[in-house]
Design brief:
Elements: H1 9-17, H2 33-39, E1 54-55, H3 62-68, E2 85-88, H4 92-104, E3 108-112, E4 129-133, E5 140-143, E6 148-152, H5 157-167, E7 171-172, H6 183-189, H7 196-199, E8 206-212, E9 218-219, H8 221-224, H9 226-232, E10 242-249, E11 251-252, E12 257-265, H10 270-280, E13 288-298, E14 304-314, H11 318-328, E15 339-342, H12 344-351, E16 373-381, H13 387-400, E17 403-409, E18 432-440, H14 446-462, H15 493-504, H16 507-518
Amino acid sequence: MTMKFPNSPLVLLILSILSSLSVSWATSEPVPINGFLQCLPKQFHSGHPIFEAVYTPQNTSFRSVLMARIKNRRFSSLATPKPLAIVAAKHESHVQATIVCAKQHGLQIRIRSGGHDYEGLSYVSHVPFVVLDMFHLQSVNVSVKDESAWVESGATLGKIYHKIAQKSKVHGFPAGVGPTVGAGGHFSGGGYGNLMRKYGLSIDNIVDAKLVDADGRILDRKSMGEDIFWALIGGGGGSFGVVLSWKLKLVRVPEKVTVFNVTRTLEQGVTDVLYKWQFVAPVLPKDLFLRARPEIENNTEGKKIAEVSFIGQFLGQTHELLPLMSERFPELGLRREDCHEVSWFESVVFWAELPLGTPRSIYLNLKNKPIAFFKAKSDYVKKPIPKKVIEYMFKAMLEIGNIWMEWNPHGGRMSEISSSATPSPHRAGNLYMIQYYTSWFQDEGIEATNRYIHLTRKLHEKMTPFVSRNPREAFQNYRDLDLGANLYNQSNLLTARAYGSKYFEGNFERLVRVKTMIDPHNFFRHEQSIPPI
């Protein structure tokens, strides 16, 4: 049966521009966007017309929809390749139709939930492509009875936390601290946060998922099989299909937790404190997560200074925390006045650097912070870094200026989970993970970008002898094209091993086998996707 469209302005607009869209896109051949648009309404008749979800460059809303979830200004310039269309799916049938029609008409799709892909791969491609935008698919259904939640991929972490807190004071979920991060990309890449030493990564607490494969079929864990489900939880997004939703296993948290943020400068001897942190943080009790954040700030005189913030969360109360810290880490000098006893949801507010007491409802409609240009990289550390290297690190950071690092301790539950339990292998043997993050707002243009990227790479290169090796491991959620990339729609297995071994170590080969099972013709691809054999 052929669907009949109402005589709406949106439909007339789509039909009126079809012929104008048969133009070249970086090639001399016609781009099949008109065939794609005509194909969409013929698929999966669900009672949810797809034309309401489609934006092309001729729509006045196209640019605002595209820009709304671009979180790195490096990929927002006029020269950045733009999609031929955006499908802002409002129903699972829209996802199915987008996949089937893009496949039929030779278009690549990029899948975006929150838009936080560090290299912009969820909304940029160098071949003809459409963006499948998941932001409308954001329902969160919490069941306290069986301690679970079904979460659609377009939901933000902030919304997930809010919905859990609405239902329970003693449940949470281990995931990141960025409230605008989308579930789809976060869970696909692993997902870590301040509960990981107690409960592991996000993917260690996901028990089911609904996937749309390259044929438009909707599969759950049972129908897809354990190999494919294993690949979804940490194998990276955009390789195996489109995950519509995830079933989370909620975890228990106390009604009150304790959080603190203590900052020390070079003048206050922070080099010695940070050196000692390496021996302490990974072996603290599971209930205590203590992040170190080296960063460059301006003092009251406008001079750049190096300092470290020690940011902690304890699943207990202050009177239990203080003697523990006094015994294990007296160098920090934690005091009672540094500590705040709050609910688990209020701790989420604290980690998002919002004022304590911020109304819970704000998490349902968070405004994005000003968008910066940035470049990020990651490392895993297996042996404490010498003091002399820490001293060099601070000098290099002062040269860069606009940089911070996060040292996130492992140990606890992270050391108990097998490196092959999920695609993310970074488990026992790691003391901590480093994120390097250089951002800039005012300096626009290619010269500034090249300068900041060069300095960030230089620091990363100088750290080589002191971090993991063979391979030099990296965290998939912090995508980094410096590790290797299949450019211009290529799918070279040797190139993929270059980045795949760093993100996934020995699990990469299993991911390749799964890819060959679920998507043998490699429809789902990007510069760092998993290729088939």
